[in-house]
Protein: Pimelyl-ACP methyl ester esterase BioV
Amino acid sequence: MISKKYFSGFCFFEESELFKDYIIQNDFTVSGFSYGAVKAFEDVLNSNKRVDKLQLFSPAYFQTKDEKFKRTQVMYFKKDANAYCQTFLSNVLSPLDLDISKYFKLGSIEELQELLYYEWSEEKLQKLIEKGVKIEVYLGGNDKIIDASKAQEFFKEFATVYYIKEKGHLL
Structure:
């Protein structure tokens, strides 16, 4: 059962208005940003409710990163979660100059580990397509969080991918 139509990113809360230029507002579209893209994807996959379109904004795509990278991220978070999140948010924001403080929510170690270790599955993507769900993926060419070109390569067989060269993680 789908409980909501928009899923927030790691360290974010109710930031959907930042994507107002992209989000389709109707009863049959579900969207998510970054970590929220993972949550939206899994929610739609495991739901029996009608969903026509799934919009994934800068999906958390770290399966091309090695174990050392992931362990290092977790270690820095454990050392000082606030400092980690502030650095993370500045990278999310780049290249924009925007005050996003009202959307900040301190992320948890569990959320960080889930997004770093999440494996996007071709089988699951195909299952959604077979359910009739159209998938859209939005990526920024100047993303400092994920490797947008590798994400584009992965998702292009399953989704309409919008690769916006001059945008970052926040699009």
